[in-house]
Amino acid sequence: MDILQIILLGGIFFSASIVSVIAGSTSLITVPVMLEFGVEPRTAIATNMFALTLMSIGGTLPFIGKKVINPQRLPLLTLLTIVGSCLGALLVLILPSKSMPLIISLSMIIVAILSVINRHAGVTPSTAIPPRIAEIAGYVVTFILGIYGGFFSGGYVTLLTAAYIMLFRMSFVEAIATTKFINIFSSLIATIIFLQQGIVDYNLGIILGTTMFIGGIIGGSLTLKLSNVWLQRIYLTVVAILAFITLRKSQTQNQSTSAIELFTPSA
Description:
Layout: H1 3-23, H2 27-36, H3 41-60, H4 74-92, H5 100-117, H6 132-151, H7 156-167, H8 172-197, H9 202-225, H10 228-262
Helix pairs in contact: 1-2, 1-9, 2-3, 3-8, 3-9, 4-6, 4-8, 5-7, 5-10, 6-7, 6-8, 7-8
């Protein structure tokens, strides 16, 4: 990869990190771009996870001391995320991720529909205590999404943000801040496992990670300046666009596969 390609890749990662602090789904942009630049799939996932760790740290810094993260839930949420991420990272070594884009695109469409139906969720601060079943569901979803977060991460924070808004009744800014903090551990644990396997491109990871760290700080600062209404608008817009692109790409891949099978002689 030459200098021009690295600069272009860094610019894409920087832009994606600013927006994804609010909307998530960084990896649905960055991993495909890395593949287009000729990076091997597992190396792309592992190096991207390394960069995401730095972005999450940068994205969390602006929220520190702003009282938008509930410390009572953090210990259990963090533990569930760490365990789930370990399992997910190990799955990268043995399972293909071809089916993930379709699953995530469908999930984001569901998120968008539910958000439109319950349009006040995350916008109007809720003083009501979430029902016990919703609280438990929030922890279960954290663990399940933690597995996915360690496996691929594309759409992980997007879905986690929606879950915390709907189940824990957080505002958008609270959910964004909480998921940024949790994603530090999700990305870090997965990165450690990838480093042990030797599939992280250190040089590229440091360059991209540094740009995403700066982008994360900018994105976090912008989040604090925007109202929950605008955070919801940005979130839903990005979710709708990424869901459409991912679903369209998945359908194209399926059509290509069907065409290959049609013209391949039977054994």
